[in-house]
Amino acid sequence: MGVKVAKFGGSSVADALQIEKIRNIIESDGEIKYVVVSAPGKRFKDDSKVTDLLYLCKSQIDHKVPFEQVFQVICDRYNSEKMNLNVDIDLQTEFNEIENALREGTTADYIASRGEYLNARIIAAYLGYDFVDAAGMVKFSAKGKFLEKETHEAIREELAKHDKAVIPGFYGAKPDGEIKTFSRGGSDITGALVAKAVDADVYENWTDVSGFLVADPRIVDNPRPISQISYKELRELSYMGASVLHEDAIYPARTADIPINIRNTNRPQDPGTMISSEMAQLKEGQVISGIAGRRDFTVITMYKNQMSDLRGFIRKTAAIFEEHDIPIEHVPSGVDTLSVIVANEHISDIIDEVIEDLNQQLKPDTIDYQDDIALIATVGHGMSARPGTAAKLFTALAENNVNIRMIDQGSSEMNIIVGVTNSDFETALKAIYNAFEK
């Protein structure tokens, strides 16, 4: 019998009804030995996530605003879970400890982590699994840097003592015991770290969708589900906005060559999407694996005569952006032109300073920028083997009156990225999907 690690996201553990579903999933599969859980998510459209309520409590007390009413809402959520699941666990002591920590000025990381912590305590009792606190296994340095090797060893050593366990996701601890969280959605990372440490056969990531879709269903009607995709392809799509799985969760599983299966808690009969190191066998006529994109980029374009003959032009350009602490997304270039693409959030407030530095240090003949660009990535390992793929994509955009402002293609020929104006984003994405999938 193999070993599976199952991570259940916020929607999967939002209330007692959802937690009953995960018990049915676990009991029907004897290979699920280790379970990683998130804090309770939204139960309905206008509901609040528990993590957001915890952050609100911290903000209120920091601003000397009464927080007791919001904190009681959180307590009521967990007490309702406890009652409806009929588990014998002392929550009041936990609530008192968290409330005291709030009053004493504890960190936002500690407060936010209690959402996962309390949910894991309840779910462990309900399943009859051991509870293992992530604070003792997921290691951060005193300065808050994640310690991968130390974490791997600690998880491996601790979970060897437990045949079955529930672990809270999202957080770990510094050497002095201070809680440190990952970025939002970080329970995905915890699950991948656990899967790697126990040498799992599969890492199952349970959420409220049946895997990845070729395109965003908010833009494209009924896009095709993706049954199998490679780590490389998924990394490209995650980077460009596909958000089912935290992109940092891919790395631990990928290095250990552990397949990730995205599953739907509300439709456990659906096979979901299997992510692995192997490229999927494409069906006849299928070229792409997925399409994803993001709005709000700035493209800065410089022209300098005989730029290709100059030494260090690209290096100096990159150095200027580094000095301003601006990450570069893409650098398309021509013989005498160089474009630099960055996210608006990193440059909007200092664009004039950056342009001035580029002019002073590089002395281009002309320089201009456009700050309403959206990027769309069309991804698939089948693209490199199919002549005419790029032509098909560009024709689809032209027929839909979409003007392409930028083109970039990776050396692997696994993706083609086009830049269009923000206003053309949805039209362009639909056009690309229809060209390859209809």
Task: Name its key features.
alpha/beta, five-stranded antiparallel beta sheet, 438 residues, 15 strands, eight-stranded mixed beta sheet
Report on the biggest sheet: 8 strands, mixed
* Rounded radius of gyration (Å): 24 Å
Distance between the termini: 42 Å
Class derived from helix and strand content: alpha/beta
* General form: globular
Strand content: 15-25%
Which bin fits the share of residues in helices? 25-40%
Side by side, the strands of the main sheet go 3-4-2-1-7-9-10-8
Q: What's the total helix number?
A: 14
| Unreliable runs | none
User: Average pLDDT, to the nearest integer?
Assistant: 91
Concise summary:
The protein has 438 residues and is α/β, with parallel strands linked by helices. It has helices at residues 16-27, 50-62, 68-85, 92-103, 108-127, 148-159, 187-197, 231-239, 250-255, 313-323, 344-347, 351-362, 389-399, 425-437, and strands at residues 4-8, 32-37, 130-131, 165-168, 171-173, 179-181, 202-207, 228-230, 260-264, 273-276, 290-303, 337-343, 366-379, 406-409, 415-421.
Please describe what this structure looks like.
With 438 residues, the chain is of the alpha/beta class. 37% of the residues lie in helices and 20% in strands. The protein has 14 helices and 15 strands. The chain has helices at 16-27, 50-62, 68-85, 92-103, 108-127, 148-159, 187-197, 231-239, 250-255, 313-323, 344-347, 351-362, 389-399, 425-437; strands at residues 4-8, 32-37, 130-131, 165-168, 171-173, 179-181, 202-207, 228-230, 260-264, 273-276, 290-303, 337-343, 366-379, 406-409, 415-421. Strands 3-4-2-1-7-9-10-8 form an eight-stranded mixed β-sheet, sandwiched between helices. Strands 12-11-13-15-14 form a five-stranded antiparallel β-sheet. Strand 1, helix 1 (16-27) and strand 2 (32-37) form a beta-alpha-beta unit. The longest helix has 20 residues, at 108-127. The two termini are 42 Å apart. The model has no long low-confidence stretch (mean pLDDT 91).
